[in-house]
Design brief:
Rossmann fold; 7-stranded mixed sheet; alpha/beta; binds 1,5-di-O-phosphono-alpha-D-ribofuranose; 11 helices; 45% helix; 10 strands; Four Helix Bundle (Hemerythrin (Met), subunit A); 3-stranded antiparallel sheet
Length: 309
């Protein structure tokens, strides 16, 4: 039971599936497979399985509100359905999943379209880590005929920046690869910074890969606009009701394998970048100020405020 969900959760934990957008898609696809692997005979039993699936996926990585919002929404469609027969309820899971995936893809397209317009010819753009939203935006800009170059950080400890660098080279964009601590050294050559997001809080702060807030700080110092490209559904409704976004701390051996026994090695995966350092959030509703995030959520995804657990 829940074989696909368990497999997917393990891949997410081990970061074989990486990036909030890809994590959410993988979770949705795993939920979609539940009907094929389930022995549930009643709606109650199916909802119990979905609840277990939710728990398995939610505990795979802590800082993944897009995945949580996706899974919660699909389950809510089953809960609210008037259908009682399993076959029909399975169809609800399938159509809700497909609808959510379509929405994610449409958002990604809109973000790329609007973000591309912000790129002026001959710009130097710095990015950090690997965000599929950012690389898609940059691909769109290249297709739109914009000429620009990229500086990307290696992103210690597990080097997601290498993936970004390879993708940029594949689309023919001049790419410079730097160690994370060289960001300030190069910032005076940068026209704008674009990073992704793992979570957005109700105050308009953004949670992203560790190292992001330092880049935001030095971008502000150098007067280089700092943009975050993200779907609004990375908003975590729990932050609205007082909770802090949890920051995942990963295994120390990612930082130093076989480190000296008494050494304390810390490995937070993410950190908060305060809204004051964010020039704009490039999302499916447009390029908005982080201050207006809750209004945008009310306009576009009101249902999110009912989904807390
Ligand atoms: P997309 C990544 O985290 C990075 O922090 C990146 O900015 C963010 O997910 C969003 O990525 P990790 O999974 O959703 O590498 O834009 O820890 O693909």
């Amino acid at each position: 039971m829940l074989r696909s969900v368990k497999n997917t959760a393990e891949k997410i934990r081990q970061m074989q599936i990486q990036g909030a957008h890809n994590v959410a898609i993988a979770a949705i696809e795993a939920i979609e497979k539940i009907p094929n692997e389930s022995s549930a005979a009643t709606k109650k039993e199916l909802l119990e399985e979905l609840s277990q699936a939710k728990h398995i996926l939610f505990t795979s990585r802590e800082t993944e509100p897009l995945m949580r919002n996706s899974v919660r929404w699909i389950i809510s469609q089953v809960e609210q359905s008037k259908e009682t027969k399993i076959r029909q309820l399975n169809c609800v899971i399938s159509s809700a999943s497909q609808q959510f995936l379509k929405n994610l893809q449409e958002s990604k397209e809109k973000i790329a379209e609007m973000g591309s317009k912000r790129i002026r010819d001959n710009s130097v753009i710095l990015t950090h880590c690997h965000s599929s939203t950012v690389t898609y935006l940059l691909e769109k800009a290249a297709q739109d005929g914009k000429s620009f170059e990229i500086i990307c950080t290696e992103t210690r400890p597990i080097f997601q920046g290498r993936r970004t660098a390879k993708e940029m080279l594949d689309i023919g964009v001049k790419t410079t690869f730097i160690v994370d601590s060289a960001a300030r050294f190069f910032m005076n050559q940068v026209d704008l910074v674009i990073v992704g997001a793992d979570a957005i809080t109700s105050e308009g702060n953004v949670v992203n890969k560790i190292g992001t807030s330092t880049i935001a700080l030095i971008a502000t110092e150098a007067r280089a606009p700092f943009y975050v490209a993200t779907e609004l559904l990375k908003f975590d409704p729990a932050t609205m009701y007082g909770d802090y976004e949890k920051i995942e701390e990963r295994a120390p051996d990612e930082v130093w394998e076989n480190a000296p026994p008494k050494l304390v090695v810390r490995n937070p995966a993410f950190e908060v970048t305060r809204r004051d350092f964010i020039h704009g959030i490039i999302c499916e509703e447009g390029i908005i100020s982080p201050h207006s995030i809750t209004e945008a959520m009310h306009r576009k995804y009101l249902w999110i405020f009912d989904q807390k657990s």
